[in-house]
Specification:
With 93 residues, this protein is an alpha+beta fold. The protein has two helices and two strands, in the order H-E-E-H. It has one domain. The chain is 26% helix and 34% strand. Strands 1-2 form a two-stranded antiparallel sheet.
Amino acid sequence: MAPRGFQWLSFLSLFVIPSYDEESRYIVQYDLYLDGELKNTYRYEVTRETWIWLGLTPFVWINALTPGKGEALAFTVDGFFHDAARDGFFGRE
């Protein structure tokens, strides 16, 4: 992937000048309907951020511990069920 915006300056300075970029942002929305009536809407934001700087090189291994896009989006499902249960929508008879 080619550097964008301020990342070009970092690239040209051989990464001595740090740069930051929000590469992608996803908004996931769950609408909860009960008996055909909208009860609540849950929104979750997933953002991918990139920091580029020579001083961060020793910490590159941390990327292996962070979730990828698919995992991050799947976590929103867990968040939805947790939040909806907290609001009392699950577990009713």
